[in-house]
Design a protein that fits this description.
The structure holds two protein chains of two kinds. Chain A contains five helices and two strands; from the N terminus they run αααββαα. Chain A is mainly alpha-helical. Chain A folds into two domains: 32 residues; 70 residues, no CATH class. Chain B is mainly α. In chain B, 74% of the residues lie in helices and 0% in strands. Classes of the chains: A mainly alpha, B mainly alpha.
């Protein structure tokens, strides 16, 4: 694909993404989401971000890997424990990264 | 004057900075992700200018990786657009979540904030928006979070494009993103229903990972929502 064709493709993808993000903001006042929708909303960031994260920890090349050499899994579990105990973003990311590097390069 | 007497006085700048401060720690995870996007996009055969422009024209983290990958393997255009729409469909739920806060604003504000509505901006701003939904300046919080993510993402992907293939791919910098999401989600889990929602979505995403074009992610999110809402319904009776 030429650079121009690629940029046109980006614009198509961008317009679609924008339409999704604008959807309910534009509808506000004309459309009330049903109550089950409102009830589900608090679970959205929890479900979405966990669904993005768990495959990163548990899968290596698309296969389930619970072995000791899966550095991401053990570093991720440590980060989850740190986040649960201290609820501190920087501490969570920092401890997870240090654990990952140690496991990955020394293990 | 609006009767918001119990709220602290909020100036536009203060509200904007609230959003900026809530988002800044997330840049630790987002900046390496953006640098890696730049490198990956060039490796997929995308010219540097197009790779950089994708960050402002599409402006969506994981969808940009997916799009670069699909272009690299020569996927048809309709498939690339459809995949990006599917992976970004979750933003409709963020849109519904922030709509009540924005509904009285002029259209230019709604257009701007819709463009800036990402996972990270939503996650950074929503605790503040839930606390001060009636504040006439609450949109400045979302703007502060959205703008700092946008600026960080543009600079990071520019750095990635400039570094190009010179950056070794095995540094593991992409691991910062799951760590960032852990740091966001774990403190949000304060009830059994929320824990069930997280565990269900996470397990389903792992089980459904082989579904084509990340559709498993969308099914997993829905499964987590159903499980969480079901547990909450049981708990309230």
């Amino acid at each position: 694909m030429s650079q121009t064709a690629l940029i046109l493709l980006w614009i198509a993808c961008g317009l679609l993404t924008f339409a999704i993000r604008y959807s309910f903001i534009a509808l506000e006042g004309h459309y009330q989401p049903p109550s089950w929708f409102i009830r589900w909303l608090p679970f959205v960031p929890i479900a979405a971000l966990t669904a993005l994260t768990m495959p990163e920890l548990l899968l290596v090349s698309g296969q389930l890997d619970l072995g000791v050499d899966n550095s991401r899994l053990w570093a991720g579990l440590l980060a989850i424990a740190v986040a649960a105990r201290w609820r501190n973003t920087l501490l969570t990311i920092g401890s997870g990264f240090v654990a990952f590097w140690l496991l990955h390069h020394l293990g | 004057m609006t009767p918001t007497t119990h709220l602290p006085p909020l100036t536009p700048l203060r509200a904007f900075m609230l959003g900026v401060r809530a988002l800044l720690p997330m840049l630790l995870g987002v900046v390496p992700f953006g640098v890696i996007y730049g490198v990956v996009a060039l490796q997929s055969g995308i010219p540097p200018l197009a790779a950089f422009l994708m960050s402002s024209l599409v402006f969506a983290g994981s969808a940009q990786f997916l799009l670069a990958q699909l272009v690299g393997v020569g996927a048809p255009v309709f498939l690339a657009v459809g995949a990006v729409g599917l992976i970004n469909l979750r933003h409709a739920l963020y849109s519904a979540s922030v709509a009540p806060v924005l509904h009285a604003l002029p259209r230019r504000w709604k257009l701007l904030l819709a463009y800036l509505l990402t996972d990270e901006a939503y996650a950074a701003a929503i605790p503040h928006l839930l606390r001060e939904p009636r504040s006439p300046l609450a949109h400045w919080i979302l703007f502060g979070a959205g703008f700092s993510l946008w600026a960080g993402w543009q600079l990071a992907t520019l750095a990635g494009v400039l570094l190009g293939a010179q950056l070794p791919a095995d540094l593991g910098l992409d691991f910062a993103l799951p760590l960032t999401f852990i740091a966001i989600v774990v403190p949000l889990i304060d009830s059994r229903a929320r824990l069930i929602a997280a565990l269900t979505a996470g397990a389903a995403a792992v089980l459904l990972v082989s579904m084509p074009y990340k559709t498993g992610l969308f099914v997993a999110v829905l499964a987590g929502l159903v499980a969480g809402a079901f547990m909450q319904g049981r708990g309230s009776r």
